[in-house]
Amino acid sequence: MSSMFHGMMKLKDKLHRLKQRLRWWNNACFGNIFDHITQAENEVKEAEHRYDRNPTDLNLIALNRSTTVLNQALTLEEDFWRETLVEELGEISKSAIRHFRAY
User: Fold this and answer.
1) For a surface tag, which of 15, 40, 47, 72 has the fewest beta carbons within 10 Å of its beta carbon?
2) Which DSSP string do the residues of 3-65 spell out, in sequence order?
3) Domain ranges of the chain
């Protein structure tokens, strides 16, 4: 029984290290999604001002592109919060199961 316990502890440690590395990789590859959203919002505002001052097809295309980038960034943020919620609910359900098993 003791060897099974140590094996599970080793697995837990490996999974914890993997989770840390994946978080680092995600941040290194994709950056801070909240910074991307702020930057995309600023680009949309600038594109809107340019289009309002000079309503040409090129400025409209630039506005549409910046709006698309903002929508993509917002989708990434939504996915981030959905994933975070799933992780938190998983932890809550694990603690609830442990609580009810104690009785």
Assistant:
1) 15
2) HHHHHHHHHHHHHHHHHHHHHHHHHHHH--HHHHHHHHHHHHHHHHHHHHHS--HHHHHHHHH
3) 1-31, 32-103
**52/63 Cα distance (integer angstroms):** 10
Tell me which fold the domain 32-103 belongs to: Methane Monooxygenase Hydroxylase; Chain G, domain 1 (1.20.58)
Are 44 and 84 contacting, i.e. CB atoms less than 8 angstroms apart?
no
Q: pLDDT (tens digit, 9 = 90+) per residue, 40-55?
A: 999 999 999 999 999 9
- Token readout for 57 is 């097809």
pLDDT: which is higher, 57 or 98: 57
Phi and psi, residue 84, nearest 5°: -65, -40
pLDDT at 23: 81
